[in-house]
Amino acid sequence: MLNFDFYNPTHISFGQDCIAKLDAFVPADAKVMVLYGGQSAQRTGTLAEVQKALGERQVHLFAGVEANPTYEKLMEAVQIAREEKIDFLLAVGGGSVIDGAKFVAAAVPYTDEPWNILLSGGADIKEALPIGTVLTLAATGSEMNNGSVITRKSLQAKLPFHSNFVFPKFSMLDPSKSFTLPERQVANGVVDAFVHIMEQYLTYAVNAPVQDRFAEGLLQTLIEQGPLALSQPDDYEVRANLMWVATLALNGLIGSGVPQDWSTHLIGHELTALYGLDHAQTLAVILPAMMQERRTPKREKLLQYAERVWNLRDGDEKQRIDAAIAQTREFFESLGVKTRLKDYDLEQAAVEAVLKQLEEHGMQQLGEHQDIDLAISRRVLEASL
Ligand code: NZQ
Ligand code: ZN
After folding, report:
1. Which of 45, 51, 42, 50 is closest to 18 using CA atoms?
2. Whose alpha carbon is nearest atom 7 of ligand 1?
3. Atom of ligand 1 nearest to the CA of 280
4. Neighbour-count burial of 295, counting CB atoms closer than 10 A to its CB (0-12 exposed, 13-18 middle, 19+ buried)
5. Digit-coded pLDDT (tens) for 218-247
6. Ligand 1 contacts CB of residue 215 (under 6 A)
7. pLDDT at position 1, please?
8. Burial readout 14-34 (b: 16 or more C-beta within 10 A, e: otherwise)
9. Ligand 1 mean position to 150 CA, how many Å?
10. What is d(CA 193, CA 198) in angstroms, rounded to the nearest whole number?
11. φ, ψ dihedrals at 68, nearest 5°
């Protein structure tokens, strides 16, 4: 029986030139910190567009939020925001900048050591500065959710937190902003969104046909539009569809009331923390091996996925599941995202290192049944080599 709360307070403005609407959404008297990444926001002109839209407001620019944003860098922003009495944060970038802004938002009023935000998974956040976002990369869904993933370089730890206090108040989604992305980031975005849907869909049946069919539709849209985004890089409509899929993939809707997995993500985070693989690269490596390893507990959903998403109807159950896993791997490879650890020059030593990290971070009960222990994670990692 379905039983859930669905809460999502983020306003979305979608479409070309929607950045101009910032003026209506940021309080006129706000002291704004604009956070952005390395160079792209400046190079592409998006930062200038944002500054123009903010008009006469007091604005403090904070540059240099890294891909896989770090606690070390973000604490600089926390200090400045406290000193300057910043009262609104505007993230201009992809998931990393948005996640970074969420951390700063929660850390500024936090009275304890801010790393505890990650150690508590966000549970003890009592307040946060308001955030808005201008999205430049379709992938994470961070623009419309309450999650954030932060890396502490000194500990080689990459940990998530969640809190309803860090939902963006609004997000500006202008698909044309994604035209300047390198191919690798476009492909990463497709894979990340795909795996977000899978982590909420490929579990066990709970008679939730709305969530299932919504998830299947989003997966099929990615399978259709993802390759087009690479082959027709100037097509606005393709980019628009991709951006909206990625947002809907992780805004809470398809995950409401259904079991969720997230084991692929949590193992993947360790690979990024240790070896710097892009987030989506880790997912493309782990997911096919995880599907293979979990084919018995996930049997019913794997068969449904095979039939409804890949239209696989021939052969016995084993053949259909094999084919669905193979199609998933081929899809990632077709986008240019590699699916083996050895493609990233990682060998058995990496398996051991990831297992050690999982143990240190208490990741011994993963998956929708909390039964993916270190022995199972080992098999998944070894199958990913
Ligand atoms: O730093 P700059 O110069 O801005 O370059 C960025 C970055 O190097 C570049 N980029 C972004 N927009 C661009 C652009 N380049 C040209 N044109 C543009 N329009 O792209 C690079 C990657 O950006 P990043 O923000 O790191 O990518 P993504 O959006 O994939 O975010 C990944 C991060 O999000 C976390 C991941 O773990 C990772 O740290 N995730 C957050 C989630 C959430 N909050 O719900 C869920 C996800 O599962 C994920 O874990
Ligand atoms: Zn992800």
Report:
1. 50
2. 67
3. 30
4. middle
5. 999 999 999 999 999 999 999 999 999 999
6. no
7. 79
8. eeeebbebbeebbeeebebbb
9. 12
10. 9
11. 60, 70
By the 8 A CB rule, do 118 and 77 touch?
Answer: no
Burial class (CB in 10 A: 0-12, 13-18, 19+), 323: middle
| Model pLDDT, residue 139 | 98
Domain ranges of the chain: 11-177, 183-383
374 class by beta-carbon count within 10 Å (0-12 exposed, 13-18 middle, 19+ buried): middle
- Which atom of ligand 1 is found nearest the CA of 195? 48
Distance CA 63, CA 73 (A): 10
Cα-to-centroid distance, 271 and ligand 2 (Å): 13
**Using a 6 Å cutoff on CB, does residue 68 contact ligand 1?**
yes
CA of 197 relative to ligand 2 center, distance in Å: 10
Could you say which architecture CATH assigns to the domain 183-383?
Up-down Bundle (1.20)
CB 385 within 8 A of CB 351: yes
Q: What is the CA radius of gyration of the chain?
A: 20
Q: Which ligand is nearest to the CA of 189?
A: 1
Nearest Cα residue to 162 out of 83, 86, 265, 76 = 265
Q: Is 263 in the pocket of ligand 1 (CB under 6 A)?
A: no
Rounded Cα distance between 272 and 108, Å, is: 26
State the closest ligand 1 atom to the C-alpha of 272, by its place in the atom list counted from 1: 37
| Separation CA 341–CA 283 (nearest Å) | 11
86 φ, ψ (degrees, to nearest 5): -65, 135
Question: To test ligand 1's pocket by mutation, which of 68, 99, 286, 335 has the most ligand atoms within 8 angstroms of CB?
Answer: 99
CATH (residue range 11-177): 3.40.50.1970
Q: What pLDDT is recorded for position 131?
A: 98
Q: Which helix (H) or strand (E) holds 358?
A: helix 348-360
Sheet of strand 11-14: strand arrangement: 11-14, 170-173, 131-135, 88-93, 31-36, 58-62
Q: At what angle do helices 299-310 and 317-334 cross, to 10 degrees?
A: 60
Listed as ranges, residues in the chain with pLDDT below 50 are: none
